[in-house]
Amino acid sequence: MLLLIFGGGVIAWVITGINDSPVSSADDLFRALVDPLRPVDLRALTPYEWMFAVALVTVAVLALCQRRVARGGALVLAFLLLALCLRQAVGALDDGYRAGFDAPTYGPWTLATYAVGLLIAVTVLILLLPAREAAREPAGQLPPHPGEHPGGPRPLGTLGVLGGGLLIALALADLAWTLDNQRLAAEYDLKSWGEYFRDLVDPSLFHSPTSLTSGIYFHEAALAISMLVVGVLACLGRPVARGAGLTLLAMAAYLEYRAVALSFRIGDWSAYLDSTRGTLMLLTMLLSVPALLIAILGLGFAGSARAPRRRPTPAWPHPGPPPFPR
């Protein structure tokens, strides 16, 4: 329910941004959701906030339906929300950035949104981190032998390792391209390395609370690092990694769809083949699509195989051997 509240709040910000925009309409927003070339006012936020809002609402609904997979998704979203709100707290240490929260239009509501988000993130983590997905035995089933798994969460097995390994590979690829893009930005004096790393934890360098969105650099890094951590947990067989991994993979799949759609819309494939860097970008994009699908299937079915169970003990008295003939 808490995640649903914040997800609804983000959606409310998107709707408010569209209503207040002089250049974008609701039709522009709906088209921009699937068309990366469709321009939309930044007041309606960015694709990162859109997918985050959808993920919050989806995981919240699954949690209300008491799906086990929702716990991992809720935890990873709570950690992302906590990082987002703490970043705003760091920005508020700057006098100029803090003054933006007093702006008459969006300032107080922006401050309230991040304050509520921080409270929600901490509450969700406190509630879910100590929790365990309780084992459930089918009716009439005896407890398992030592080493057997009860009816609750099970190690993710080979499929979990497969999904986790692909998560790690996708995360490393994203991090590599993110750092390479920053290398180019530093070479052309667009943003230094110091400015880039500071912007990851301090939005006051390039943004204001009244800009609503804090840019894409934080979201890029946060998603890639989360995928890396969850991928390691999946390889270790942690059941919580299943829901967390599926949530992150769904978010990454949406971004990958936008990247592929953009390439097809532009249609200039020769630009990729003119340089080694372009060729590597094209290969990364082409390999990421099947990797995402396989990882989703792997984590989706991970831990579904039931461990063998012993048969019930025969009823007493035991029939025993037949009597000896006299």
Summarize, please:
The protein is mainly alpha-helical and 326 residues long.
Structural account:
The protein has 326 residues and is mainly alpha-helical. It has one domain (2-130, 154-301). It has helices at residues 2-20, 26-34, 47-64, 69-91, 95-99, 107-128, 157-187, 193-201, 217-235, 240-266, 270-273, 276-301. The longest helix has 31 residues, at 157-187.
Low-pLDDT segments: 134-142, 145-151
Q: Count structural domains.
A: 1
- Helix content percent band: 55-70%
Q: Note the total helix count.
A: 12
Architecture blueprint of SSEs:
Blueprint: H1 2-20, H2 26-34, H3 47-64, H4 69-91, H5 95-99, H6 107-128, H7 157-187, H8 193-201, H9 217-235, H10 240-266, H11 270-273, H12 276-301
Helix pairs in contact: 1-3, 1-6, 3-4, 3-10, 4-6, 4-9, 4-10, 7-9, 7-10, 7-12, 9-10, 10-12
Features:
326 residues, mainly alpha, 12 helices
